[in-house]
Sequence to fold (193 residues):
Amino acid sequence: MSLQSICIFCGASTGTNPIYREAAIAMGQTLAANGIRLIYGGGAVGLMGVVADAAMTAGGEVIGIIPRSLKESEIGHTGLTRLEVVDGMHARKARMAELSDAFIALPGGLGTLEELFEVWTWGQLGYHSKPLGLLDTNQFYSKLSHFLDHLVEEGFVKVKYRAMLQRSDSPRDLLQLLNAWQPSIHSRWENSQ
Fold:
């Protein structure tokens, strides 16, 4: 698989540990260095702004998608390759998914998790066959990963759908995992694991 555009989900804040900011910078630089277009939520604040600025500074292409209602509070980024203003959150997520070949969640809050789980569910249902990943900076997603494994153990998530979500603390390694990922050809409603 050759990834040309990756959607990044991440926080509208930078968190309490400077390592999250450093990881967002590294992610933006890595995307730009590999000629991969960054698709994201269009904000200039938090890790959203950090990853976009890093990609732009490194010569990358960045497309932001922001709802009209959030343009002021998330401070729509004016220094991007392109900023698209859409009518709402559903339109934002649909447009980001349409433009992207893969999805990566950096550290973030409820919105980040909601975006990740929605596109993951879409993949499970066969609406797309795009890889997903977690940039697990400072083991940010380790407890979530354990819980996801628990869902498999309890029979609520099949092994093959759990395997859709790649995880690494290295932007470069995560890109390699996403490039190597192969979608399942099986139906969502089969009995097999």
